[in-house]
Amino acid sequence: MTYAASADATPPATSAHEPPQEQYKLAEGRSAEIVSWKDGQVLKRYRPGFPRAAVDTEFRLARTAHAAGVPTPAAEAVIETEGRLAIVFERCEGPTLYELVRSGAQKPERMAQIFFELQRAVHRSAPAGLPRFEQRIAASIEAAADVSMEAARAALDILERIPLGERFCHGDFHPANVIVTARGPVVVDWLNAARGAAVFDFARTLLILRYARPGGIDRQTRRAFLEAYLHACDAAGVDQSLVAIARVPSILARLAEPIDPAEREALHALLAAAPAHGC
Ligand SMILES: Nc1ncnc2c1ncn2[C@@H]1O[C@H](COP(=O)(O)OP(=O)(O)OP(=O)(O)O)[C@@H](O)[C@H]1O
Ligand SMILES: [Mg+2]
Questions:
Q1: 141 lines ligand 1 (CB under 6 A)
Q2: Which CATH number fits domain 16-90: 3.30.200.20, 3.40.50.300, 3.40.50.1000, 1.10.357.10?
């Protein structure tokens, strides 16, 4: 049995599923691989040991986003196949926005504008029943292993100073989580979605654009994308001084994740240089 619960229902237990005869891998992320499934569908098949609760959370949040009218693939069911948990998603045909920029197929400036507008479109929808972004960031700060108690305390203090927001934040908005289909760009990967101040969502995106190590993209293209994204933020009136304040808690939250050592080093260097009120 599968389930296709409403956005806020508690999912029932999952039972085993036979894979179709022909199955191939389309892409891979940190937590899962995306493989072909039945007609017009893919499986997001999680790595062994990935917690069931997190799969259920992603399913619920992906359905929430879809129900709110955000362009995103429909999440159809949680299943177990070949001993692994998986979500059945509607299949989206097309490269990621990251691939389009990296390959030079599209201009970084144009892609950055589309990327920013999509993030704003997510922020504008306000579905109910979401976890709070600030609470999630606080939990990550407390879980960050290689930061001092003082740094964690300072970040939690900054977190409290930022006015609470009610925006729908994706929580991991970066160009590899956007697929550019013939019908327009769609957002995937909703595990970290939450309700909160949009500045945290912008701050995290900026950290990823500046310091994450996706590989294979040249510095100039990357810089052009970042600058165009910043320009789009400015043009839309995003309060950059508030985004800068949100940066310290966002850095600590990012440090709680299994990131590349070079990114970790860069984030620690930023923290070391940060004034007490943010950087
Ligand atoms: N519905 C879909 N249809 C087609 N391709 C998809 C779909 N969902 C995801 N993908 C592809 O799979 C990749 C990884 O998906 P996703 O980001 O959900 O995995 P993840 O393991 O959570 O990623 P991360 O590394 O960001 O944690 C995406 O970048 C995209 O290329
Ligand atoms: Mg992803």
A1: no
A2: 3.30.200.20
Amino acid at 274: A
pLDDT in tens, 190-212: 999 999 999 999 999 999 999 99
48: CB partners within 8 A, 6+ apart? 83, 84
Ligand 1 within 6 A of 54 CB?
A: no
| Smallest CA separation from ligand 1 atom 14, residue | 29
Question: Where exactly are the structural domains of the chain?
Answer: 16-90, 97-273
Look at residue 279 in the predicted model and tell me its pLDDT: 54
Q: Please state the pTM of the whole predicted model.
A: 0.92
Is the CB of residue 181 below 6 angstroms from any atom belonging to ligand 1?
A: no
Would you say domain 97-273 falls under CATH 3.90.1200.10? yes
- Asked if residue 155 lies in contact with residue 249, where contact means CB atoms within 8 angstroms, the answer is yes
